[in-house]
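Hey, can you fold this one?
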Amino acid sequence: MILKVYKLNKNNPLPDYMSHQASGIDLFASVENDVSIAPGDYRIIPTGISVSLPQGYEAQLRPRSGLALKHGITVLNSPGTIDADYRGEVKVLLMNHGKKPFVVKNMMRIAQMVISEVVRARIIEVDEEKQMDKTKRDNGGFGHTGV
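Sure. Predicted structure:
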């Protein structure tokens, strides 16, 4: 599949896979000034790009493991979803779970984007609970299999 990318910020690099078999495309911050994120706080960070996904695909925005491990930085609405019909700037909602302020600098790799196929369900209402498919688990919820 082809991912079309339009650079809103011509100075920043295109997003890219950082290894031959990486599933995530690294996204870069596109900020004029450094952005500080205090512990427990979050900020929307622009990437300076918009994307054109083919119909039947989505892009999921996910945290970078190195930022999570070293600084407690994550994508707050992880995974963030970019629908195939969205053409605005890709922005990442970063959250600081760390103990120190975290500074986002221009062109810093801040998140990764994974492209996935989308299956759209046909939604059918049933009249009675007994019309639902039965399973061994049935309605067992949180913690029903133990800790």
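Residues 107 and 114 are 19 Å apart (CA to CA). Let me know if you want another pass with a different chain boundary.
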